[in-house]
Every structure is written in structure tokens, then in C-alpha cells.
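Structure, all two chains, one model.
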Amino acid sequence: MSRPPQFNFRNPADERLPVKILLVLLALAYLVFFLILPLVSVFFEAFRQGFEEYYAALIEPDAAAAIRLTLLVAAIAVPLNLIFGLAASWAIAKFEFKGKSFLITLIDLPFSISPVISGLVYVLLFGANSVLGPFLKSYGIEILFAVPGIVLATIFVTFPFVARELIPLMQDQGTGDEEAALSLGASGWQTFRYVTLPNIRWGLLYGVLLCNARAMGEFGAVSVVSGRIRGLTNTMPLHIEILYNEYNMVAAFAVASLLAFLALVTLALKTLLELRFGAGATGGRH
Amino acid sequence: MEVTISNIRKEFDRFPALNDVSLKIASGELIALLGPSGSGKTTLLRLIAGLDFPTSGKIFFGEEDASHRSVQDRNVGFVFQHYALFRHMTVAENIGFGLKVRPSSTRPARSEIRRRVQELLDMVQLGGLEKRYPHQLSGGQRQRVALARAMAIEPHILLLDEPFGALDAKVRKELRRWLREFHDRTGHTTVFVTHDQEEALELADRVVVMSQGKIEQVGSADDVYDRPGSPFVFSFIGESSQLPIEVKGGTVLFQGQPIGIAEASDGAGELFFRPEDVELVDAPDALFGKVTACRRLAGTRIAEIDIANDGHAPYHVEIEVPLHAPVELRSDLRFRPTRWKIFRK
């Protein structure tokens, strides 16, 4: 009995084995060289002289102050941008009004201009030669080279994260659910609390995580307004740079590793949520 | 509850979506708003619900002017076209939502809400599905959850926007019958929007035919089908053909020739007739044309006929021909309408 001739059917979207291996290796090499290697070297450098040195570098007063300041700035900037992002995307997605596309462009502004310029804007606004600066100073309010300036610059730079994440999501969901809730007698707040918020919760969380990562990591804008007073207006990224410039490698990398660690925690949190609540979690769609 | 819509006008960016619409809906009635897309039927439904507000005119619930009452205060049950079920809530939570959000003074106890939800689930025949989420339900089931959710607040009036639009044909037919029974059982004043005339004619006590922001005709299925009040209604509902004619001395003339039917008052007009209201005749005073196509349609046979129009594109009419005597293509056919309507120009 003759067997039917064998055909080698190949998935049209498939590639030959050598090509496959080559592409995978290329991608891996790229990943290792640009992402994993730098990250590993940060931790490697940080622990080069042992855990004692590492720990000492972190509890050193100036470093501790920088860590505290970074956490404080993020703790102020992230909730404010959470509220603003929610309000802006609510307005943009659920209502029709004049100047809507202008508002969307405005929200994107911090993404499109260099952070250094974002910082300079506040120097121009509150600096010694400005109108507002001396006026506020006469009332004892310091903006520039103080915590308020750093917070302002950070808010500006992290402005779009939450809104950008939510606007497409909310536009996609439309107003049907809200109308249904209202028709069932729910008040505006109840509608927001029970219907709108649960519908966007994963998108919102993702936006907040990104916003937080950037708020803690921002360098350019903050470096312009902070004045870099050790122990007072140095955030973690600024402190790292100073240590680095002083050739204090272990300390620089110790603080850097902490910052990187915070970013990794953020990413891990996001991945965990995605795994736990399915692929649609970050998008919030079903 | 009786609902009176009085001289409603609604503009969107200066464009009138509804123009001087008045309608009286009796208590317990099942009304269909029927029309093509853009006719304003959904706008009218949303105005009744309070999801939109009229530019001018008033809406009365019973004797009371409800025009300025918010959607929360109107107590209407609204079933949305795509149901708008809350995706993160179970079926039971969806149905109980309207009770849960009531102010504490009128909110039923938790156990009472649970009992009501159970009752409604049984009413829409979804008992046992209370723990499911909307995405775990079929289209027909979602539809009934949406209905139960709307009914939970004991609405004055039930409003449904294209209730069967998103369902496949078979489910649609079943649900249609089911909704009719549901209405007869509960006796709620119900208004639903549809673009499907079959749905409207079969289901509704009265059909409101709408076009371009106006009500064209209000009447029973028999009224709008047998006695269309306007050229739009005649051509929108059912099949029909139309020809320009002139009435002279009580005789109807087409292209200057008598066609064997009589009409009282003289003048130019448009003759409308349905394919089934036609007889084949062997007389000189009749319409005649060439058969261009012949098709079987369920229990009938329809012939498409071109009537020559002196150098212009021919008039196209469709008539029913006997099943047992198939007509030949390109043969000449003579016929007269047995029932017709002439609308004056």
C-alpha cells in the first residue's frame, strides 16, 4: 500500500528555524544589553563593597533626607494628578464642549516639551526677577529652591499620565452605563462611585503607577527648581547625581538601586494585577 | 400612567431632531415608535425618560408637568439598546441597583431587596442565574436582565430603545412574543423604539410612524397598513409601488390614458398601491408593462414590471401574480389596482 505523498505544510506566518533562532537571539541580545545589564550593574555596583557599606550609604542623613523628600513629593503629586486626571478624562469622555481638542492637546503638553523647560517655566514664574516670587517671599512663602517648587515641577511633568490612560478608556465605554444608573434613580455621586469608578479601576491604577514611577524618578525639571541643597531640596535622582559627581560610587549606586527597586516594585505590582485579574485588567475592558 | 407629549421641539446644534411632536399615550398601552434612522424616535424616547430635555414643549406624566423633572425623579424604566448592564456587578446586583441607591428613608431592607430581586428573576425566567456576570449571559438573557433591572424600581412607564436590535432573528421572535405576554401580565405603560416594522405591527397596540422629526401617523397595525395617512407611511410600511397620475372627470389617467379606476376629485397626484392589491386584466384601459423579473416570495410570486416612460427611465412596479400561472419574462402584462390611494401633489 503506497502512502500518500507527504506535504510539508508551513504556517504562512512562520519562519525557517535558523531565521527564528537568529531573530530570537537578536531580540535577547538587545534586551540584555540595553535593559538587563544596566540594571544588574546598578545592583552589582551598589553591593560591591558589601552590605554594610550599602546600608551605611542609605542611612547617611543626606541620603535619608533625599529618600524622604522623594516619597513626600510623590505622595503630594500623585494624588493631585489622580484627581485632576479623573476630572479631566471624565469631562473629555462624557461631555461635548467647545475647546475639547485644545484641552486634550494641553494635557499632552508636558509630554512634548523637555522637562528642563518645565523647570525653567517655574523659575521664570517664581524667580527673584519675577512678579510673583518677591511678592510671595514677602509673606514668607518660598517656592523656588524649596519643596513647593519641586512639587509643582513634578506635578507638571507627571500631569498627563492618569488622564492619558483614562481618556481612551472612558471614551470607549461611552455614557450608557451612567445613563442607566441615573435612570434607576442613582445620584451623580452614586453613579460615579458604583458605576464609573469600577469600570475604569484598572486603567486608573495603571495610570497612577506610571505617574508614581515618573514622579519619583523625575530629574530634569526638578533639578532646575530644586537648588540642590543637600539634606533639604535634594530628591533621590538629584542626590544620586551629586554622589556620582563626587566619585562616591558605592553611595550613588546604593541610592540608585533603591530607586530602581521602587520602579521594579511598581512594575511587579502591575504585572501581578494583570495576572490576577486577567489580560483585560490594565485596559479595564471586558 | 398616562403620558402626554405636547408640542415638543428638540434641536441639536440648531438642527431640529423633533419638530412640534404631540402624542397621548394611554395608561397600560403598548406603543411602538417606528421610523427610519434619523427620524427622531430615539430622541423622543430619551425626552420622555428625561435623559434629554426638549428645546420647547411639555411632557406630562398623568396630570403633572414632568418637563423639568430629572431622570432620577421621573421614575421611568429605561432599557438601553445595548442593555448597559453594569459589567462588574452580578445579575442580582444589577437588578437590585435601583433599590440599593435609594435614600435610606425609602430604601428597602437588604433582605427585602434580595426577595424583590428573586421575584424579578423569576418573572423574567432567569432564576438560578443571579450570581452570573453579564458577560457570562447570552444576548437574550442580558436583555431580560436589563428589563428586570428597569422593572425593579416599579417605574411609572417602561421605555425600551430598540429592544431586540442586538439579537439574532430567532431569539428576537421569541422575545417579542415574550415581551407582549410580559406586558399583558404586568400592565405597564410601555413605549419601545424600533426600525423594524414587522416588530412594531406585531407587538404594539398602536404604532407611531415617524419621519424627519415628525409624527406621520398614529394608529393600530391595521390603520397604518390598510389606511396609510401619507405617502411616507404608504411606502415605508409594507411593499408598495407608486405612479404619477392625473384625475380628470372622475377617471384616473396615467400617461394621459385611462387605467380603469375611478377617483372623485380632479387634479394631479401620486397613485400608491400594494403588490397584493392588483388584478391581472385583459382590457385596454389598464396599466401595462414588461415583466423584467419574477421571484418566489414564501407563499406568493412577485413580478417586477417596467412601464415604459417615453425616453426616461421606466417606472418600476411590483405586483403579485398567481402561483399556478407563472408569467414569462419579457412578456407584456396588463393589470389594475383593486385597492389604492392617491395622494395629491
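The longest helix of chain B spans residues 169-186.
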